[in-house]
Amino acid sequence: MNKEELKEKYGKKRVPHEWRKTDWFTTLVVTFFGSGMSPKAPGTMGSLAAAIVAYPMALWAQSEPFGQTDLFFNVQSHYFGIFMNLFFLAAALIVFFAAIPFVKKAMKDTGTEDPGWIVIDEVCGIFMALAFIPTETIVSQPWILAVAFGLFRFFDILKPLGIHKFEKFPGAWGVMADDLLGGVYAGILIWAGLLISVYFS
């Protein structure tokens, strides 16, 4: 290897500076308070930040102002049905639609196409995965946040089951949509696992 190749492979990675070309508030939103500025694995850092923030959010969802945010629709039996955590479903959808104009502006201002430092899409995906987990379970068994994080990253990186097609949506929609679907897949797997554990307990 020559000097340049060695530097590229083993040299210290620098935080990309394209984000400097847009305004500070847009940067704050799309990097999820700077977590996307990590020089290594910004998508992982953004997902991790979202998973960490999700715990106090779950505690908040249990507070009096929100009341009952978990719904379970029975199908033929008490144990089998469709579950939805309305709090995190709302959080995922709010992030999805609210982030679109910011992501669009960030890419336009910086002349980039889905750069790694835009991680608000990972935040949306993590929240979507948690929309399939009861709030009480998140609070009492916080290790499940690590499961949601791992499964979501699996779908986000490999993009199986048609996720890559959503990535091809135009502009900011493509940036956000594939992660939303990845969160759905991750959430369904977690929901299935919880259902199986309840059935055999």
Descriptive overview:
With about 200 residues, the protein is mainly alpha-helical. It has a domain at about 80-200. Helix content is about 65%, strand content about 5%. The chain contains 9 helices and 2 strands, in the order H-H-H-E-E-H-H-H-H-H-H. It has helices at about 5-10, 25-30, 40-60, 85-110, 120-130, 135-140, 145-160, 165, 170-200, and strands at about 70-75, 75-85. Strands 1-2 form a two-stranded antiparallel ribbon. Strand 1 and strand 2 form a beta hairpin. Helix 3 packs across helix 5 and helix 3 (about 40-60) packs antiparallel against helix 7. The radius of gyration is 18 Å and the shape is globular.
Annotation, overall tally of beta strands: 2
Strand content: 5-15%
Fraction in helix: 55-70%
Mean pLDDT: 85
Poorly predicted tracts of residues: none
- Major beta sheet summary: 2 strands, antiparallel
Which strand order do you get reading across the main beta sheet?
Answer: 1-2
Distance between the termini: 57 Å
Reading the helices and strands in chain order gives HHHEEHHHHHH
Features:
single chain, globular, 201 residues, mainly alpha, 7% strand
List the helices and strands and how they pair.
Blueprint: H1 3-10, H2 24-30, H3 42-61, E1 70-75, E2 77-85, H4 86-110, H5 120-130, H6 135-140, H7 143-158, H8 163-166, H9 171-200
Antiparallel strand pairs: 1-2
Q: Care to give the gist of this entry?
A:
The chain has helices at 3-10, 24-30, 42-61, 86-110, 120-130, 135-140, 143-158, 163-166, 171-200; strands at 70-75, 77-85. It has 201 residues and is mostly helical.
